[in-house]
Write a structure and sequence with these properties.
The complex is a heterodimer of chains A (101) and B (511). With 101 residues, chain A is mainly alpha-helical. Chain A has helices at residues 8-20, 24-34, 54-69, 80-83, 86-100. Chain A contains 5 helices and no strands. Chain A is globular, with a radius of gyration of 15 Å. The chains are: A mainly alpha (101), B alpha/beta (511). Chain B: This is Amino acid adenylation domain-containing protein.
Chain lengths: 101, 511
């Protein structure tokens, strides 16, 4: 309610910075959304789970992450160390987002 | 190339030949292990003898429940040596679908690793891969037994069964003989000049017909088959590095796998000068992505292959011999040697240039029909529609093709509700059938959005999306799961009271 006095611009800015605070929960929720059958924890090995494959990653997850955090994943960054578990993705994204500032 | 004296009757002759010529060459390699040709022959025989001791008679189906691995391949050949035929199961498949397949198959045994306590297989004899190989050797007896089996086999005997989606909810198992596979492997080897230096980078699952090319061309030529870990297809640059390290020089992949590499510019980061052959099939290859490959590897040979599981692997092929703009479709080409491919119009007349018709195949690649399914077999394994003077079996594909001015076939789509998704052949009816069995759904219809390559389930009922997904996952493999769900208050019906698919397709399929 106290946000009533915000100008449109301020509001956009605030939402923008809120969005860019990468949370583990958001990553887990994204996987739940694109592949609701799997169980995802911080350390779930996504590719061994049987629910995540290249189509999930390229078709749904990466485009959403790029859009949501305003980043561009470069081909050499697309390695298991960055994308093997939700925790790994979190760490990678935090690094990417920090570079933006 | 013509190293065979006389006729090959059994694919095991390929292994025997390669074990003589190239005993220490690696035949199959995966992440964990590799086998040379002499080891492959030895293990094939040992396995074959142990299986034969446990199963009475010959020509029985044996299901193989193993992840894609070197051991899985050795199991196939062990089963062939025992005088039986193998049925490779997808270990990730929904349990209900496995049950359906086993029910229709009634396998003499299920072969796997540590599956003794698996409830799904409790009605069947279970063979443990490691136990079979660890059994004491009885050289003399083994030789005698295997010789006897071979003497009683002919080239028309089944080598394997591959299951594909069926519209009634029951998958169909294509029976393929040694003869079909041998003739196919001979043709492939000749046309693409594969030899003992060839290293295949295997992408497709062994329960998918494209893997037949990799496996049998490998053993025919004393070549090597390198299993590429599935996970790498999510990491394009790593994938190419892996291919470089393992000296892969020939690939036969589904277009989606080739497209990932192209879309992520992976070829800008890793050069693959050794890769001389790039083959693809299973779905339409997008020309734009193919052009990315061609510009990076202009010296490599590219070919589009086309055919259904029912005719071993493919019956039409097109070797790229000219440039294509990004918008131009790649032809599916011309018939393989000693294969007749023809297309007829609705009126039953052979098509001419510029015309469209349904595609038929005739020749030794054509399989034996569907296992334990005479009704479905009679629908598509039929008498040649162009003549009735003598029995002349042909396979009716249900694919529509057009003949261009150069005399090449172009793929136009399906006649029925079958689709191609992620390289898999899927009957939309099977998905509808599964969804329709859910109590909370009153009606369900499945359509396919060609442009977006998405399976859409449209339903009338009270169930939520997650509930439906949870229900379907026990019935369908992952690649058949609907990707978009649309709840409608009332399903549109046509004049006959049937679901109006045309309207659904217009409304949801082409936007």
């Amino acid at each position: 309610m106290e946000r009533h006095n915000e100008t449109m611009e301020e509001q956009m800015e605030r939402m923008d910075s809120e969005m860019k605070q990468v949370q583990l929960e958001d990553i887990i929720n994204l996987f739940k959304e694109v592949q609701p059958l799997g169980n995802y924890e911080e350390d779930t090995l996504l590719y061994e789970s049987g629910y995540v494959d290249s189509l999930t990653i390229f078709g749904r997850v990466l485009p959403e992450l790029e859009k949501r955090y305003g980043i561009k994943v470069e081909p050499p960054e697309l390695i298991p160390e960055h994308f093997e578990t939700p925790a790994a993705i979190l760490k990678y994204l935090k690094g990417k987002v920090a570079q933006l500032v | 190339m013509e190293k065979w004296n006389g006729t090959i009757r059994n694919v095991l002759e390929y292994i025997e030949h390669s074990a003589r010529e190239y005993p220490s060459n690696p035949a199959f390699r995966d992440d964990k292990t590799q086998v040379t040709y002499s080891e492959l022959l030895q293990q094939t025989r040992r396995l074959g003898y142990q299986i034969a001791k446990k199963i009475s008679g010959m020509r029985n189906p044996i299901a193989v429940f193993m992840d894609k691995s070197v051991e899985c391949l050795i199991s196939f050949f062990g089963i062939a040596a025992s005088g039986n035929f193998y049925v490779c199961m997808d270990t990730q498949m929904a349990p209900e679908r496995i049950r359906k397949i086993l029910n229709s198959l009634q396998p003499a045994a299920v072969l796997g690793k540590s599956i003794q306590n698996e409830k799904l297989f409790s009605d069947y004899l279970i063979l443990d891969y490691e136990e079979l190989l660890a059994a004491g050797t009885e050289e003399g007896k083994q030789q005698e037994c295997l010789k006897n089996i071979r003497r009683n086999m002919i080239d028309a005997d089944p080598l394997y069964i591959l299951y594909t989606s069926g519209s009634t909810g029951i998958p169909k198992g294509s029976v393929i003989s040694h003869r079909s596979v041998i003739d196919y492997a001979e043709w492939v080897s000749r046309i693409f000049q594969f030899d003992e230096k060839t290293v295949f980078g295997s992408q497709t699952p062994f329960y998918f017909s494209m893997s037949v090319l990799d496996i049998f061309t490998t053993i025919r030529n004393g070549a090597a088959l390198q299993i590429i870990p599935k996970k790498l297809f999510s990491f394009p640059v790593k994938l190419l590095e892996y291919m470089k390290e393992t000296h892969v020089n020939a690939i036969y992949w589904v277009p989606s796998a080739l497209s990932i590499v192209a879309d992520w510019q992976a070829l800008d980061y890793v050069a693959l000068p050794q890769l001389h052959t790039v083959l693809f099939a299973g779905e339409v290859m997008p020309t734009r992505q193919l052009n990315v490959w061609r510009s990076h590897l202009p010296e490599a040979r590219y070919a589009n292959l086309f055919g259904p599981t029912e005719i071993t692997d493919i019956g039409l092929y097109y070797i790229l011999d000219r440039e294509f703009s990004d918008e131009e479709p790649i032809p599916i080409g011309v018939p393989c040697e000693n294969i007749d491919a023809f297309a007829v119009t609705e009126e039953g007349k052979l098509i001419g240039k510029g015309e469209t018709g349904e595609l038929y195949f005739r020749g030794s690649f054509v399989g034996c029909g569907y296992y334990n399914n005479p009704e479905k077999t009679q629908e598509v394994f039929i008498q040649n529609p162009l003549q009735s003077s003598y029995p002349d079996p042909v396979y009716r594909t249900g694919d529509l093709v057009r003949l261009n001015e150069r005399g090449e076939y172009l793929y136009q789509g399906r006649k029925d509700f079958q689709i191609k998704h992620m390289g898999y052949r899927i009957e939309l009816g099977e998905i509808e059938h599964a969804a329709g069995s859910f109590q909370k759904l009153e009606r369900a219809a499945c359509i396919y959005h060609t442009g977006k390559d998405k399976i859409i389930l449209i339903y009338q009922g009270t169930a939520g999306k997650e509930e439906i997904m949870a229900y379907l996952k026990d019935l369908l493999p992952a690649y058949m799961m609907p990707e978009v769900m649309v709840q409608v208050p009332a399903m549109p019906l046509n004049a006959n009271g049937k679901i109006d698919r045309k309207r659904l397709q217009e409304q949801y399929g082409e936007t």
